Amino acid sequence: MSEHDQHQRHEHEDHQQHHQAMIADFRRRFWVSLALTVPILLLSPLIQGFLGLTDLLAFPADDYVLLALSTAVFLYGGWPFLTGLVSELRDGAPGMMTLIALAVTVAYGYSAAVVLGLEGKVFFWELATLVDVMLLGHWIEMKSVMGASGALTSLVQMMPDRAQRVGDDGETEEVSVSELRKGDRVRVRPGEKVPIDGTIVEGKTSLDESMLTGESRPVEKGEGDEAVGGSINGEGSITVEVQKTGEDTYLSQVVETVRQAQASRSRTQDLANRAAAWLTYIALSAGALTLAAWLGVGRAFDFALERMVTVMVITCPHALGRDRAGFERARKLDAVVFDKTGTLTAGRFGVQGVASFGSLDDDELLRLAAALESHSEHPIAQGIVEAARDKGLEIPEAADFENLSGRGAKAQVDGRTIHVVSPGYLREQEIPMDGETVATFRERGNTLVYVLADGRPIGAIALADIIRDESRAAVARLKDMGIDCLMLTGDAEAVAKTVAQELGLSDYFAEVLPNEKAERIKEVQRGGRTVAMVGDGVNDAPALVQADLGIAIGAGTDVAMESADIVLVDSDPRNVADVIELSRATYGKMIQNLFWATGYNAVAIPLAAGVAYGVGVVLSPAVGAALMSLSTVIVAINAKLLGRFKPSAT
Hints:
Elements: H1 3-43, H2 45-51, H3 54-57, H4 62-77, H5 79-91, H6 96-115, H7 124-144, H8 147-157, E1 162-166, E2 172-176, E3 185-188, E4 198-202, E5 205-208, H9 210-213, E6 219-221, E7 226-227, E8 232-233, E9 238-242, H10 250-264, H11 271-296, H12 301-314, H13 325-330, E10 335-339, H14 340-344, E11 345-356, H15 362-373, H16 379-390, E12 398-404, E13 408-413, E14 416-421, H17 423-429, H18 436-443, E15 447-453, E16 456-467, H19 469-480, E17 484-488, H20 493-503, E18 507-509, H21 514-526, E19 531-535, H22 541-546, E20 549-553, H23 558-563, E21 566-568, H24 575-609, H25 621-640
Helix pairs in contact: 1-4, 1-7, 1-8, 4-6, 4-7, 5-6, 6-7, 6-11, 6-12, 8-10, 11-12, 11-24, 12-24, 12-25, 15-16, 24-25
């Protein structure tokens, strides 16, 4: 790879390592805090009393041991939230970190003061469990967002490190791709990746560019044609003259497009963070008002402080310690844009039609072609052989097989010389290839190969990327849900039009390059729609990042999966509808839980503040903590009911 690409790789790897270190730090802090929480629970008076083990577990100076253990949890486990509070306040955007940090600081400070002589009761156990739950939530969240930098790293790593440079004497030497300069020539053998963008100056072959450009079929290439770095060479050996290096290469431009989309990606603050911000304001306002009110009526400071502490602890529910922003966006979708190759289609060729010339029937033509193609591993060859087997045809033996680089192949079958070749071969040999059926195949965007017997055309076979049956069901179901279905592909206009018509798509974009895919998503978004992008290849990465929700097919590339918000493990496009249904159900639970939290706080906060003190009802900080935990349990049970979610029938 070039010096520019190597710099990008090192930069992304450094960022990746930093992010990995942060994940490891949260994991370590969680397990240490969890281990310390066990003795904290056993030493807490409220827990001892609840379990009836006070006489057994209490010992002299146990409150100081409890203080020491809790100090460790507060400083070690709570440190990310304390530093997060500083960052959020510096940015003028108090949120989750501020709320958590305030709760643990007030809980720790008040309880420490009680141990050191202030009248009241400690609730270190609530501090410890709150820190544990929040550390776990943020650990999980950070793992889920790891893909943002991983996508760029995977893109850079697609390029090979080494190349076979051709010297003036025609001999090759292996060099680092970073040493290549414009005008250098490199040899690319069958099955190798093209190391850098250039022009073919010698040889013929077919290049698999599907993961880069979305072109479903291998593209025939010869002298004067462009070869894109990262594409996979087919059956022929070629020599490529370097035309672009560094940031000018195709894949580097894709990397930059993904980077820009990530930087400008507008993400509405999710419901949990908005709730956390409001709860922060409520906790601060209610706590300060409570302290001022009791001091204003002449109550002792320790009493007023206890009321303030109870209010602030009771306002912080554990249930906000999870990130569900992706699901929240999914519920708002009104347009889903699918990639074609490998997403709506199977990414492999199937025979769409056979046209025989003269007296030969279609099955005989397919049988002869399959005999020859059984010796080839080309995707088109495999499609022909599979079609013959599916029809139960007996495939004869072929002899003297010869590959015609970039043009087809020939062999001896049943005593005749059989060719299966591209239209380009017929043009070279000036062999006529027109026909009404063939013209129809061409209009549909099918890939055509011609079969020759002893130099004479005897028929043509049309192939195309097979449309998945699951895709038809997925599109129908999404349309029933009121969601528009579109397609975005780098494939040819005729191919895209045929697929769109067969699936009943609302619209499609064809012949779109990866750096243009993000722009097409923006076009749809500018229409006021919330858009999901579903894809599987490198060429989909910019669009996956730009979309309001990126959904990767699980069988796709690492680049696609790391650029997406959600990965469909089963590689089934019908699961897109499942995601949307689940997101709506999840959001419903979130609303229910927030309604519960609102009602709970409407009653609990005034009681914690002491409004019923005149009639003998007052909540201690410990009771407030217990009520808050009970609220969390209720929320968790309600959320757990999502486990019963069943998607509608497809």
